């Protein structure tokens, strides 16, 4: 269940003096104002305000959001390749397909991150289009992974659905941050 953003703001103000991971005021203001309209605002705020790298510009936030997505996708990939085995043939096939989908997701998020790190004025629009396309494709891969488990019951499906849904949520927020960066046309690069 998502915490309403206004409650998140109150919690932030009450805890900001005691939180070691908090950014200076301006960074948290940017994070808060940037996350307010994200698909998952409380998740956006939580993940970006605890991010250890820079978060001072829309570009920083877009990169941080993609890094969060990539990190979570890597964790799912590790989970899939080291800790999960399917019981039925159908489940094993779905898991194998999901490993491939998450691998593609990681590739697309990695390309996105590289594109965001090397933005140039003359190619900004093209680069942003690439980033938007790649993150959208990553979201599609995540959905496709879950689709493979249609008609399969059990703990593997349930556990994987939670993990993939989390990656999809942070990826959706990353796409939102990329769209915000595109709308700003790269100001504050």
TrEMBL record:
A GO term from the CC aspect: apoplast
Keyword Transcription regulation: no
Keyword Cytoplasm recorded: no
Location within or outside the cell: Secreted, Extracellular space, Apoplast
SMART domains linked to this entry: PMEI
Gene3D superfamilies per the UniProt record, alphabetical: Invertase/pectin methylesterase inhibitor family protein (1.20.140.40)
Record key words, sorted: Apoplast, Disulfide bond, Secreted, Signal
Signal peptide as annotated in the record: 1-20
InterPro entries: Invertase/methylesterase_inhib, Pectinesterase_inhib_dom, PME_Inhibitor
Pfam families xrefs: PMEI (PF04043)
Molecular function (Gene Ontology), one example: enzyme inhibitor activity
Domain of life: Eukaryota
Residue span(s) of domain Pectinesterase inhibitor: 26-177
Cited CDD domains: PMEI-like_3
Family note: Belongs to the PMEI family.
UniProt xrefs under PANTHER family: PECTINESTERASE INHIBITOR 3, PECTINESTERASE INHIBITOR-LIKE
Protein name: Pectinesterase inhibitor domain-containing protein
